[in-house]
Every structure is written in structure tokens, then in C-alpha cells.
Amino acid sequence: MIIRDGKNVILSAKPENVIVAELKNTAACKNYRNCISGTFSYENKANAILISNGRVISNLSAHGWLGYPDSVIFASNDGGIAIDRLVGFSEERLSQVKWAVSGMGLLDNYNPSAEGYAKFTQRGNTYDYSDVLRKTNHTAIGVKGGMVYGFYLSNMTGAEVNAYVKAQGMEFAIMLDGGHIAAVNCDECSANASQKQHNILQFLQAEEKDDDNMRQALKISQNCIDLVKKFEDCRLRGYICPAGVPTIGYGYTGKINGKTITTSTTITAGQAEDLLTADLERFASHVKKFDSVYHWTQNEFDALVSFAYNVGSINQLTKNKTRTKAEISQAMLYYNKANGKKLAGLTKRRKAEQALFLKTEDSREDD
User: Fold this and answer.
1) Catalytic, out of 22, 208, 232, 353
2) How far apart are the C-alpha atoms of 143 and 203, rounded to whole Å?
3) Which residues sit opposite 70 in a β-bridge?
4) Residue 264 contacts by C-beta under 8 Å, 6 or more apart in sequence?
5) What pLDDT, on a 0 to 100 scale, did the predictor assign at position 112?
6) Long-range CB contacts (< 8 A, 24+ apart) of 346-349?
7) Shortest CA distance to 33 belongs to which of 152, 254, 185?
8) 235-240 and 246-249: which strand pairing?
9) CA–CA distance, 298 with 357 (Å, rounded to integer)
10) 3-state secondary structure of 26
């Protein structure tokens, strides 16, 4: 659900359809559908508790180094959603957390001074973190009736944010980062969506979470075919590629009529096209298996099919679905070696795939 309330925006999704993503300031909300900017960061590191799909990005509250806890909203592996006030999770509890994000508590937890969001003196040093409460744009998340709500709130103080989420009937809620960081991007509108973010929260809508429909919508485009052909010369006689693998056609390495490719194997141009089409579909099916986690755009999908066609899979590239899209994009460039030697051709190919992966103009449309 997406609601516009003047300049304010409210997104919602079930806990299992909320994605916490670490972008490390390499991407912005405009690169993701239905998301808000996330929690605090400092020097390109999370400055709050942040857990994404079981991966611990940070397990220390914003002012934990001074002994102050944060309010943290977290989803458990068993499907539950809850709030607690913590400096950090115990090792035992961490194993049960699917995702978590902390910030300044609202509603029953609204006590900025108790969480260090105030001016105070400790051990002879004066600290002032009360600017979090200033009148500016803010994001927040809350929970009501088992649903998670994301808020982009325009020109409010911390107290006004607290009053607003209370008026929406939230059972518990926290305020996230604000000021020039606060951003939203959704089907209804966007605000500050080009601002690079350390982390975001994405709220997958009903049409996005339907895995079967999404897989039907994902199809190889001409961009993918052109990219593969650009780096895979069509050779109608078998040869040994730089990695030492028997190859023919557009980089095809399987069998021809049940027989292993040799340097004497020959095919026609038409057969080369047929082999390419079939092989691309095979790798497309592989990339689709990750779609329920990442919700690929068309360009991301095409780039990854090209990558998988060349490398063999995207399992390691995604670290078995634990890397963020930003981390996947960066990791692409590491796969430019054959037999331990860096190859100029592979370096160019990885850069081209990365460029397509990051291109935002032709995002997939729902059927």
C-alpha cells in the first residue's frame, strides 16, 4: 500500500516483504522501487543496528560507544515482528533475526535523552546529538496489525514525527535519519531520490512479491543478446578458449549432438544462433531464481544473464543471496581472470556488464 498525505508518503508491506539494503553510498533511492532512506551512518558505515537478511552489518546502537541504547525494530526468522531497546543483540538473539534497523524510539519509547539523542556531559566531555530532533525531513518505520509501515515526513521536528505516527495508529515505531539524507522513491512520487544512501528500506508491493508473475515478466532483452555477442565472437569451428575450455559458436561449451566439442567440430551460423538462444534461456532461468530476493530490473537481469553465461552462475557473485545490489555490482569487476591471469577482454566485459546493471532508464514494467 502507498499513501500520499500532502508532501508526506506512507509505504507498507508484510515483514517478509521488507528488504533492508546496504548501498554504501554507491546508489540512491531512485534505483529502487518503493523505498525510503534508512538509518544513521557515519564515514560510510552504519551508525546504528542494521541487519539484512540475517547478515549483520552493524550490531551497535548509534551512541552505544557511550553506553546509550537505540530502539530497534526487528523481524524474526519465525515471521514475528517486535521492538526492543538495545545497545546490541546478544549472539543467541542474533541467530534468530532476519532483518533489523534501529533509530530513535517513538510512541512508548519516545525518550530522546535515554537514547543519547540530546545534549549531555559524560566523563568531562560534552556531546550534542539533539540536532536529530530539528525541524527537517525525516524517515521512520512503524508496525500496526502485523504490517510494517515506512514514512517519509516533510519538515517536521522529532516531536511532530512522534505525533504523526501516533495519529496513524502505529503500535510501535522508530525515527531514522533525516535532513539532506531523507528520501523516498515510490510509484506515487519521489523526493530527494538522487541522494546517495548508505542504507535503505524497500517495501515490496503485492505485484512485486508474486514470484510466479515476476518470473514471467523477466525476459531476455536485445540488450542482453547484443552484450553477449559483443564479447563472444561467433566461431563455427571448435577452439580452446583462454580458460582452457573447448568452445564453439557464441562461447558455447556444452555438447553438440551428444558429443564433446573438439577443434574439429563444426556448426552452421544458424546452429550457433540456436545454441546461443537455448543457452541464454538456461542462464536466465538461473538468474530468475534470485528474483524473489532482489526484484531485478530489466537491465540488472540482462547484465546478470550475460555474466552467468560467461562465468557459469551468480551464486558466488551474490554470496548465495546475501550481498546487496551495490555489493553485487562492485563484485562483478573481480571476475576478470582466467587461470589466475587478468585478461583485458574480461575486464572490458565486466565493466560493460556493470554499466548495464547500474543503468536505470529501462526498468522492468509489471505485466
Assistant:
1) 232
2) 13
3) 86
4) 237, 238
5) 96
6) 346/310, 348/231, 349/231, 349/306, 349/310
7) 185
8) antiparallel
9) 9
10) strand
Helix (H, G, I), strand (E, B) or coil at 303: helix
What number is the average pLDDT over the span 306-335?
Answer: 92
Give Dmax over CA atoms of the chain in angstroms. 81
Angle at 177 between CA 173 and CA 183, to 5 degrees: 100
Task: State the pLDDT confidence band at 292, using cuts at 50, 70 and 90.
Answer: confident
Q: What's the mean per-residue pLDDT of the chain?
A: 90
Cell of 139: 524517515
Q: Are the C-beta atoms of 50 and 38 separated by less than 8 Å?
A: yes
Location of C-alpha cell 551428444:
258
User: Residue 30 in 3-state DSSP?
Assistant: helix
Q: Measure the CA–CA gap between 100 and 64, rounded to whole angstroms.
A: 16
| Contacts (Cβ under 8 Å, ≥6 apart) of 147 | 12, 13, 14, 15
153, HSE (Cβ side, Cα atoms, 13 Å): 28
To 5 degrees, how large is the angle CA 108–CA 114–CA 120?
150
Say if residue 204 is exposed, middle or buried (CB neighbours under 10 Å; 0-12, 13-18, 19+): buried
Question: Among 15, 12, 9, which Cα is nearest to 1's?
Answer: 12
CB 215, CB 288: distance < 8 Å: yes
* pLDDT (tens digit per residue) in 166-219: 999 999 999 999 999 999 998 778 899 999 999 999 998 765 444 444 444 678
Cα separation, 149 vs 166, in Å, equals: 12
Q: Is 168 helix (H, G, I), strand (E, B) or coil?
A: coil
Query: Under a CB-based contact definition with an 8 Å cutoff, are residues 62 and 114 in contact?
Result: no
Q: With contact defined as beta carbons under 8 Å apart, do 18 and 98 qualify? A: no
Q: Give residue-wise pLDDT tens across range 114-165.
A: 999 999 999 899 999 999 999 999 999 999 999 999 999 999 999 999 999 9
Our measurement of the distance from residue 30's CA atom to the centroid of its chain's CA atoms, rounded to an integer in Å, reads 12
| CA atoms within 13 Å, Cβ hemisphere of 156 | 21
Residue at grid coordinates 530490473:
297
* Pairing outcome for strands 259-260 and 2-5: unpaired
538462444: which residue's cell? 277
CA triple 248-254-257, angle to 5 deg: 90
Spatial separation of the C-alpha atoms in residues 107 and 149, rounded to whole Å? 14
160: annotated active-site residue: no
